[in-house]
Write a structure and sequence with these properties.
Arc Repressor Mutant, subunit A, Four Helix Bundle (Hemerythrin (Met), subunit A), 2 domains, GntR_C
């Protein structure tokens, strides 16, 4: 029998995955210019897959493209971020309601494990990853072709500001965050969709109100030319 060739990842997919990780990890600041030639050198790719990758990340809310000008890491003003959080307050409770009935017992157990892991870590970057994994998993039972991707885009646009929020308050200083995660797991374990909706809405609102109290987060950073 002739062995099938191993599938290869396209260059634009590889560049998009690498740049996505760099942006979400904070290696690029909001509003920082993305130099396509540097990306091409970094990933060992030509300009065409780099441009395709940037268009893909623009659709994900991570990059802003200006025709005939260039690409920048997407950024939000305080007012824009507050609006995004208000949208999240309304749509994510719906997503968790749609998800809970279809969550497998193994997923519910993993939510408990993620909740415990967030309490134990002292690393902001690890907390941010665990937190996103936790909420993504809580929504993973929803069968939706629109809302899930929409929420993922909203999370992408606020990633930098979630990091800034965590840097101000620390991982454990705001104990309400851990309590809300715990209460959400308990509601999911009971299958109480009404309570889960309420907790998710309150959880997002708390972060929004805290961010509004720190407008310095949204000041223009010093960026590379």
């Amino acid at each position: 029998m002739t062995a099938r060739p191993t599938p290869t990842i396209s260059a634009n997919t590889r560049v998009a995955a690498g740049l996505r990780q760099m942006i979400l990890a904070g290696e690029y600041a909001p509003g920082e210019r993305i130099v396509q030639e540097e990306l091409a050198d970094h990933f060992g790719a030509s300009r065409l897959p780099v441009r395709d990758a940037l268009r893909l990340l623009e659709a994900e809310g991570l990059v802003t493209l200006i025709p005939n000008t260039g690409a920048w890491v997407a950024k939000l003003s305080l007012e824009e971020c507050e609006e995004v959080y208000q949208i999240r307050e309304r749509v994510e409770p719906l997503l968790v309601r749609m998800s809970i009935p279809a969550l497998a017992p193994s997923a519910v157990r993993q939510l408990r494990e993620l909740c415990d892991a967030m309490r134990e870590t002292d690393s902001i970057e690890e907390f941010l990853k665990l937190d996103r994994d936790f909420h993504s998993l809580s929504y993973s039972g929803a069968q939706t072709s629109v809302l899930g991707e929409f929420v993922s885009r909203l999370w992408n646009t606020t990633q930098h500001y979630r990091r800034a929020y965590s840097q101000i308050f620390g991982v454990h200083a705001n104990r309400t965050v851990h309590l809300e995660h715990e209460l959400l797991v308990l509601a999911i374990e009971r299958g109480d969709v009404d309570e889960a909706e309420r907790i998710v809405q309150s959880h997002i609102r708390s972060t929004r109100l805290s961010l509004v109290q720190h407008p310095e987060i949204f000041q223009e950073p010093e960026v590379r030319d």
